[in-house]
Design goal:
The protein has 253 residues and is of the alpha+beta class. Helix content is 39%, strand content 28%. It is rod-shaped, with a radius of gyration of 34 Å.
């Protein structure tokens, strides 16, 4: 059998025209009622008397319902529900767009790479570009028994366009294209393109596939030289987008 309070709550909710809010209203009324009953029980009232007085204090069901209906206006409620629905639709469309643009595997990889970002060292050279900030720092230098030296240059990029900038265009340049100069002169340009051919005696290697997040990218390139360099400058020389970053291995030792 339904209690007098449950009947009272139904009478209140019937006055509220926006039906989706009725459940939350009933839950809130139950909290107020239960709190009042507990207070009366602590004062020594019996359970029956406490429930009766708590219900009487809640007021006339119809008047309470009218007051709540004025707050929970149907047009505001439906506007809120519609906005929630549209937000879900837009989120779903964004996910579908990302899926068709980069695929789920790329989506996951980019997210992992973003979370695994490692800050460039404080000593890294940097330059502000149109779409972000580029950093460069010297990496490992090794030498094989044949006399060739392998000098690593580490690169970091933080962009301001998470969805609008492709990592291969992130520097405001096409591909990862650089010219190189050290104390011995210049080395043929490096371009991250498997079809690009460079001089066999001094050339660039890409170290790994790089890590491309949504706003942060990392890449290492390796220079194969006749002897280890003390310093190096990498540049992008095209008009309007030119920049130069200098790395010094002696400073790292």
């Amino acid at each position: 059998m339904r209690s007098k309070f449950e009947i009272w709550v139904d009478a209140v909710c019937e006055q509220v025209r926006f039906r989706p809010d009725r459940k939350a209203i009933a839950r809130e009324l139950r909290v107020h009622y239960d709190d009042h009953v507990k207070d009366l029980l602590r004062l020594g009232r019996s359970q029956e008397l406490a429930e009766e007085r708590a219900l009487a204090a809640m007021g006339n069901a119809q008047e309470v319902g009218w007051a709540l209906d004025r707050v929970h206006k149907p047009w505001l409620g439906w506007l809120w529900e519609t906005s929630r629905f549209l937000a879900l639709v837009l989120a779903a469309l964004a996910l579908v767009t990302l899926f068709h643009t980069v695929g789920w595997s790329s989506l996951l990889r980019r997210t992992v790479d973003e979370l695994c970002w490692e800050e460039p060292p404080a000593s890294a050279a940097k330059v502000e570009l149109e779409h972000g900030t580029l950093y460069a720092a010297p990496g490992k230098v090794t030498q094989d028994p044949g006399g060739q030296a392998f000098a690593e240059i580490r690169l970091w990029l933080q962009t301001r366009d998470p969805l609008g900038v492709d990592p291969y265009y992130s520097y405001g340049i096409k591909n990862w294209f650089f010219t190189y100069r050290d104390e011995r002169g210049e080395v043929p340009p490096y371009e991250a393109d498997p079809l690009t051919r460079v001089a066999p005696s001094r050339y660039w290697n890409a170290l790994g596939a790089g890590r491309f997040g949504w706003t942060r990218y990392r890449q290492s390139v390796e220079l194969v030289l006749d002897e280890p360099p003390r310093w190096a400058e990498i540049s992008y020389p095209l008009s309007g987008q030119d920049w130069t970053l200098r790395v010094e291995w002696e400073a790292e030792s």
